[in-house]
Design a protein that fits this description.
- By secondary structure, the chain is mainly α.
- Helices cover 51% and strands 0% of the residues.
- Helix 2 packs across helix 3.
Length: 67
């Protein structure tokens, strides 16, 4: 089950995991785990990622309603 869209937004913004890792002072392994939904970021880290990517935090989350 997917919980976040970090990988998709990074792709849309044409940014590598390494860039986000540096911006958030996290390891590339951590960012990779977030992107593959193996691990989820804290709310604080999610907001920091949204700020770094210049998107609303809601864009980093999968919708919980059917489309």
């Amino acid at each position: 089950m997917k919980f976040n869209r970090i990988k998709a937004v990074l792709k849309e913004k044409q940014r590598p995991n390494k860039w986000l890792a540096k911006k958030l002072n996290k390891s590339q392994v951590t960012i990779s785990r977030w992107c593959s939904n193996v691990q989820q970021p804290s709310l604080e880290d999610l907001y920091k990622a949204a700020e770094a990517l210049k998107v609303d935090v809601s864009e980093l989350l999968e919708s919980n309603t059917e489309k």
